């Protein structure tokens, strides 16, 4: 690498669309923010290559956000094989590095797939700085180790400043929406009265299905919840699993094989969770803690927080329960 290249770093950004979107949907539970990935890449230099790989005939609705950021959408028909887009990404990156017609100093790979490990090693041998971006729960250790630097998308979300962090509730028409938006960088949720019921039901379901991975448990629970006498929507069922995950309600077994994703490992409840009520309280406390940290200059209204967690503030007992947790968090 020449001194001129070092002084003026040039970035090639490659996105494995299906991997990163699937990981964000399953483990963060919110729509992906491409601007966050793009901005992270920009910190390394001028982006001269912007490519996203997928069978775009399956994702016509999702193209506009990437096109708005100037990405070249590389279409790879899925009938060529499950890993066709991955292979095309590797071929393009190797070709660009070998030919040198488009000189770049930094290669950024937005994916957690271990299939890109050899590519990372190759690019480093060619003198490139290799940076990975992936979701914490699904990023392969082999790929992480092969990169010079690896950023977790989860952490990039947390670093993104929230516009409402210092606003008062009077500046918003809907205080509950303000709260939901404040924690949306970490976890997606709806202010729905079925949420507590879904969590209590999940505890019972998980107890009946021991030695199961969180991914399997989550998928099976959505089907189970839909079949109940008072059905819970798949959306709420999906949301509460992500809420429990992000409030540290689970313990994961050690990997049974090298590079096993976190959500594919056997899961149990965290210590101290001995019944369904314990699970609900730990989740409530974790979400309120996240809310307080996301809005450090705004006092949290127990009534609005009750609406956020329970879909209503009509029950004074629930409001008092929320206030007790807020007081505990403030004192801790």
UniProtKB/TrEMBL annotation:
* Stored InterPro entries: NYN
What GO MF terms are annotated? RNA nuclease activity
Q: Which PANTHER family match?
A: HTH OST-TYPE DOMAIN-CONTAINING PROTEIN, SLR1870 PROTEIN
What's the protein here called?
NYN domain-containing protein
Supply the source organism's classification: Bacteria, Bacillati, Chloroflexota, Ardenticatenia, Ardenticatenales
Source superkingdom: Bacteria
Species in which this protein is naturally found:
Ardenticatena maritima
The region annotated as signal peptide is none
**Residue stretches making up the NYN domain:** 11-153
């Amino acid at each position: 690498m020449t001194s001129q290249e070092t002084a003026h770093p040039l970035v090639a950004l490659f996105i494995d669309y299906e991997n990163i979107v699937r990981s964000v949907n399953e483990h963060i539970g919110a729509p992906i923010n491409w601007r966050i990935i793009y901005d992270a890449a920009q910190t390394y230099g001028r982006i001269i290559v912007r490519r996203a790989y997928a069978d775009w005939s399956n994702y016509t609705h999702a193209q506009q956000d990437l096109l708005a950021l100037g990405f070249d959408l590389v279409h790879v028909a899925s009938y060529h094989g499950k890993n066709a887009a991955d292979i095309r990404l590797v071929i393009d990156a190797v070709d660009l590095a070998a030919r040198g017609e488009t000189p770049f100093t930094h290669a950024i790979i937005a994916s957690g797939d271990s299939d890109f490990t050899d590519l990372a090693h190759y690019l480093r041998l060619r003198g490139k700085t290799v940076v990975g971006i992936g979701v914490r729960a699904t990023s392969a250790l082999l790929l992480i180790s092969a990169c010079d630097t690896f950023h977790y998308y989860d952490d990039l979300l947390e670093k993104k400043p929230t516009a409402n962090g210092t606003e008062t509730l009077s500046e918003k028409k809907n205080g509950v929406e303000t709260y939901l938006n404040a924690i949306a960088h970490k976890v997606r949720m709806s202010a729905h009265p079925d949420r507590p019921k879904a969590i209590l039901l999940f505890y019972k379901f998980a107890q009946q299905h021991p030695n199961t991975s969180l991914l399997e448990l989550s998928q099976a629970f959505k089907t189970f919840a839909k079949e109940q006498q008072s059905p819970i929507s798949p959306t709420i069922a999906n949301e509460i699993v992500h809420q429990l995950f992000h409030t540290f309600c689970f313990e994961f077994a050690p990997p049974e094989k090298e590079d096993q994703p976190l959500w594919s490992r056997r899961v149990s409840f965290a210590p101290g969770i001995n019944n369904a009520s314990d699970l609900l309280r730990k989740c409530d406390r974790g979400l309120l803690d996240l809310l307080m940290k996301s809005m450090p200059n705004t006092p949290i209204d127990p009534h609005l927080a009750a609406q956020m967690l329970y879909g209503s503030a009509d029950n004074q007992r629930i409001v008092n329960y929320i206030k007790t947790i807020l007081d505990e968090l403030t004192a801790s």
